[in-house]
């Protein structure tokens, strides 16, 4: 293998991103799934870094299949399927995209919120089917419009703050639920998701991805949101119980929903597909040119720092203590 540090990819990156990695690193291969059996056998003894995404993840078994692995870079903010206990035990540093794509994901949240509340996808399909033959008021039910509504943000981190900045222009009330109350905003604070759901009309999930948030949006929360409520998820799919959401949409427990993320991706289920009060997009909230440039640059900075024996730029919050002590990690 090359004398340059060797990396393996676990995500289908663009040619531009791969070219940026290749400037300084040897790309030993690619895995379509995070399966140890898919690591190219010739590369297994040489791979020093894995560049993947949190929704793809890395198990203990995958890490064990690459004995020289010392760094996992998550392209994007999430890291929910990375086995952090195994990474710590194996002295493998893990980084993520931190706030690199926050403005773009927030922009997407506004877009799919409007698509859901204003029935944009349903209206488009109606015209394409040739069903627009009469002007019928309230064809898709009474539409409230955002102005004067209450928007609840679950998770007021980088993405949540960017979303709040953008949604203010719609003359809405903003409230939030966070692990701790922020001192730098004056929005009403709600101590838990249930109280936020009872208060708001539109619930926007912007949570940091970790195991504690799995299915935090469940049947009880959706019932609290109510029959005129809309749910938007642009954080991580597993924050929402998809079976409970499908049931709520089928029986008008809530009015509508929009998802850019799913529990398993690509989505191969069936229960969400027939629901015309659900807007779905294929996890591309951070898929703009600007976001990809920022995320690619951040991965490169993390790789460069790591292989220079320096602390990485954007370690996971859970591993910051490890990041401060890079000695002995290079293999």
Number of strands: 12
Rg: 21 Å
Assess the beta-strand content as a share of residues: 5-15%
Please tally the helical runs, counting DSSP H or I stretches of 4 or more residues. Answer: 11
General shape = elongated
Tell me the major beta sheet. Answer: 7 strands, parallel
Order of helices and strands: EHEEHEHEHHEHEEHEHEHEEHH
Alpha carbon gap, first and last residue: 15 Å
Mean pLDDT: 94
Structural class: alpha/beta
Q: Order of strands in the sheet with the most strands?
A: 8-7-6-9-10-11-12
Extract low-pLDDT stretches: none
What is the percent of helical residues?
25-40%
Oligomer: single chain
List the helices and strands and how they pair.
Blueprint: E1 6-9, H1 15-22, E2 26-30, E3 49-52, H2 60-64, E4 71-74, H3 84-89, E5 93-95, H4 102-117, H5 120-129, E6 150-154, H6 158-167, E7 173-177, E8 189-190, H7 193-199, E9 202-205, H8 219-225, E10 230-233, H9 242-250, E11 256-259, E12 278-280, H10 289-307, H11 320-323
Parallel strand pairs: 1-2, 1-3, 3-4, 4-5, 6-7, 6-9, 7-8, 9-10, 10-11, 11-12
Helix pairs in contact: 4-6, 7-8
Fold and architecture overview:
With 331 residues, the chain is an alpha/beta fold. It contains 11 helices and 12 strands. Strand 9 (202-205), helix 8 (219-225) and strand 10 form a beta-alpha-beta unit. Helix 4 crosses helix 6. The chain is elongated, with a radius of gyration of 21 Å. The model has no long low-confidence stretch (mean pLDDT 94).
